[in-house]
Amino acid sequence: MRALIALYSPDLPPIPGGVADHTVALARAMAALQSGQEGNPLVLGRRGDPALAAPVPCRVGVAVRDLPDALAASGAAGVVLQYVPFLYARRGLSP
Question: What are the tens digits of pLDDT across the range 21-41?
Answer without folding.
Answer: 999 999 999 988 877 666 689
